[in-house]
Amino acid sequence: MKKTFVIVALLLIVGSSVAQSLRVGAAMRVITPNPLLPVSGGVGTPKKATEKKGDLFARALVLEQGQTRIAIVSVDNIGWPSALGNRSRALIKSIPPENVLIGATHTHSAPDAYGFPDQNGNSLADLAYLDNCVKLIADAVNEAVGKLEPASLKIAVGEAKGKIAYNYYADQLYDPRCGVIQAIGTAGKNKGKAIATLVNYAIHPEVLGSGKGILSPDLCGPLYDRIEAKAGGMAIFMNGAQGGMVTADVRRENGQEANTWEECIRIGELLADEALRIVSTAEVLENPALSCAARTVEFPVDSEMMRYIIKKSPLKFELSSTGKVAAQINLLTIGQAQVLTIPGEALPNIGYYVKRHMPTKYPFLFGLTNDAFGYILTKVDFNSFKRYDYISRTSLGEMTGEIYMDAVLKWLAESPKPVTAAK
Ligand SMILES: [Zn+2]
Q: For residue 395, what is the DSSP state?
């Protein structure tokens, strides 16, 4: 009797450890329009592109442990609204929609994905292109699911050194921390090889911008290429709290700026090298615990311009009867690391504040993820400095930052702290 119990217990332990082991898959799709489309740097009429520098991508990283499966998707665009993201989620049958995180890299040299209306309420967005992107994003995730394989992880957060980002409004006010998650195969032909490397860093990829006639992933393209050449596997970039106005450090002497493709290469490669340096000394986590939670947070739309975009866009954004928009926010734990998403461009002080309240040495913030509702300021920053006129106008309203911070801090307090290994 006792013996049977021991054997059953043993079988249960063996069974659960097999089922619980971490698996990772990665896949991507090129989403460069052919022929090229005008590119959008935000509100306003998109500008004609006559050449491309690199391709635009949708890149998907899928993590699985036991019953938990999560997709992290990055799209080379200025922002990716949930009106499009939810259509991809519906095409991804093997992952619950709330476990699919879709972020935008914030390149300013990609087609309009919002359907920004002009003064007459007309939009120039190419809906057929966006329909195709919806499908390609789901294809990338579904392929990554099919490629799931046993993996370990390396996770690190460290300061990226060198001339990468700065704050255009006040040069020191930015977060130099770069978070890196690297998945390494533990069996089969990928044993010991990198399957994917995720880089999380706050920066505006607007070296080229939208006024040069160039369609491009901006500095993210050279970042992908460098990581893949040096580490192997697939690179994926998730932006951070880069609002008002953390941008690429293209400064030259005498107030000049280097808004060139060569500068995209310099910064993208430097950030890639720094990310690989930061993760190089991280310990290998054989079976880090994985969890994914999602909440919906509602934000009032006080800004007249944002209301106009929401109402007039052909993408049919949803506005509640009380004039609010709803955003999916995710909280992930990956080993000792924690990841929170931001549905827009949070200012760096909000990023610091939220990271400080995350009970981990490895805080990750995925900005512009699951939605991109413009800038997110604290109520005291809103409509304050003259410098903040533009970012106040292109935010939902005075309370957006407060609502976000209150919601996530309450959530963090209610959530279990991250642990190192899966049980
Ligand atoms: Zn921006």
A: B
pTM above 0.90, yes or no: yes
* Long-range own/partner contacts, residues 357-363 (CB < 8 A, 24 or more apart): 357/408, 357/409, 357/412, 358/412, 359/412, 359/417, 359/418, 360/336, 360/417, 360/418, 361/157, 361/336, 362/155, 362/156, 362/157, 362/179, 362/335, 362/336, 362/337, 362/338, 363/157, 363/179, 363/337, 363/338
155-165 tens-digit pLDDT: 999 999 999 99
Extract the runs of DSSP E, i.e. beta strands, from 259-407.
284-285, 290-300, 324-334, 337-341, 345-346, 362-366, 375-376
The answer to whether the CB of 201 falls within 8 A of the CB of 178 is yes
Distance 387 CA to ligand 1 centre (A): 14
pLDDT at 320: 86
Contact 293, 415 (CB under 8 A): yes
Q: What is the pLDDT of residue 41?
A: 86
Structure tokens, 28: 């991507």
What was the pLDDT predicted at 124? 87
> 243: CA distance to ligand 1 center in Å?
6
User: Which residues of the chain register pLDDT less than 70?
Assistant: 1-19, 420-423
Spatial separation of the C-alpha atoms in residues 239 and 227, rounded to whole Å: 16
Q: How far is the CA of 251 from the centre of ligand 1 (A)?
A: 18
**Helix residue spans in 232-296 (DSSP H):** 261-280
Whole-number pLDDT of residue 44: 80
How confident is the model at residue 420, as a pLDDT? Answer: 59
Provide DSSP, 72-86. EEEESSS---HHHHH
For residue 245, report the distance from its CA to the centre of ligand 1, in Å: 7
Please tell me the distance between residue 405's alpha carbon and the centre of ligand 1 in angstroms: 20
Q: What is the pLDDT of residue 131?
A: 98
Chain centroid to CA 237? 7
